[in-house]
Write a structure and sequence with these properties.
A hairpin with a 3-residue loop joins strand 11 and strand 12. The strands form four sheets. An eight-stranded antiparallel β-sheet has the order 8-7-6-19-18-17-16-15, with helices on one face. A seven-stranded antiparallel β-sheet has the order 14-13-12-11-10-9-20, with no helix packed on it. It has 329 residues and is mainly β. The longest helix is centred in the first third of the chain and has 10 residues. It contains two helices and 20 strands.
């Protein structure tokens, strides 16, 4: 596969790298790591263990506490980068993001919407040895004649046959203290302890790992050398529903995923809603001057299931292209 192509600002790259580095259970941010603040914990004093200075000859550096604050742009949670307690929103505009109704930021840096259709799957990345589908949920808006949609789950195929899924569990009422994530690998559910830094990795694919970045609803998924994903399960709030007429009901808070990918080894033949924007020959057909640029052609990306590779633009397992083996993973 080709070399890494990701044009995000250096600080965002560092942010994703250190977030995935948390590998042990701890209530404190790991050294050089990051935590996620949730409602009720803004302005919490957090110790960055690799922050602070030491006097010459006086031994180890003494951690220096700093206070992190979520900005108004990310009122429910934010990413905190140590040292310095720099804060970012998961859905800031950087390549690989898919948030909300879903708004993507492509590998070319352009932002666009892809509405898809509720209760259907769409291939968002398809390469010779990596395929990612997204399951969309939503409500129909009679005023616009289209569905409001969100990504409820993703299905990842790699190494020819391994299957990994991550989803937000349907919920009537949102409780941020409850874990709404559903994780599975090769059709077996993954039980991940609810402590920051808890990490799971399967023996049959040791390069795959899932690490908690908060006690509930926030994880980093990494397939070493292939991609890293920051994921959060979130609801549609009553305020959002009122402003945008999303139609949240008493029996469904429309729990969904906000996602931030960093791809490390996409080929130049990659396709899919998001994947194609990483090609060197990709030419955007979006009206970037529009207030809401929308990517059309949904029929090209429809898949028959979460792990199906039958979308019209599929590249997975193409003959003549060397497939990765379990040994790589």
């Amino acid at each position: 596969m080709a070399t890494t192509r990701w044009s995000a600002a250096a600080v965002v790259s560092a942010l994703l790298v250190v977030l995935a580095a948390a590998t042990s259970a701890s209530a404190q941010p790991p050294p050089g790591g990051m935590t996620l603040f949730v409602p009720g914990k803004r302005n919490t004093e957090s110790t960055c263990k690799d922050d602070g200075k030491t006097k010459k000859g006086k031994g180890k550096p003494k951690p220096k506490p700093c206070t992190a604050r979520c900005t108004d742009r990310c009122p429910t949670k934010c990413l905190v980068l140590c040292p310095g307690c720099m804060t970012f929103c998961l859905c800031d505009f950087y390549p690989g993001v898919a948030c909300g109704d879903p708004r993507f930021t492509g590998g070319d840096g352009n932002n666009f919407y892809f509405h898809g259709k509720k209760d259907q799957e769409f291939c968002i990345v398809s390469d010779s040895d990596l395929h990612i589908n997204a399951h969309f949920i939503g409500n129909h808006n009679p005023a616009t004649g289209r569905d409001f949609t969100w990504i409820q789950a993703i299905g990842v195929l790699f190494a020819g046959h391994h299957r990994f899924s991550l989803g937000a569990v349907h919920s009537a009422k949102w409780n941020p203290a409850v874990d709404h994530l559903d994780i599975a690998f090769d059709d077996e559910r993954v039980a991940l302890p609810r402590v920051v830094g808890a990490r799971w990795s399967p023996a049959s694919a040791p390069a795959l790992s899932v690490t908690r970045t908060s006690p509930a609803n926030d994880v980093v998924v990494e397939l070493r050398g292939v991609f890293r994903l920051v994921a959060s399960a979130v609801p549609i709030t009553a305020q959002e529903s009122s402003v945008h007429n999303y139609g949240v009901t008493a029996d469904d808070c429309l729990a969904h995923l906000d996602l931030g990918f960093k791809f490390q080894a996409l080929s130049d033949d990659v396709h899919g809603v998001l994947g194609q924007t990483y090609r060197s020959d990709y030419v955007s057909k979006l009206n970037v001057a529009a207030k809401m640029p929308v990517m059309g052609g949904a029929a090209d990306y429809v898949s028959s299931g979460l792990f199906a590779t039958d979308c019209a633009v599929t590249r997975f397992g193409r003959s003549g292209i060397a497939m990765v083996t379990d040994a790589k993973y």
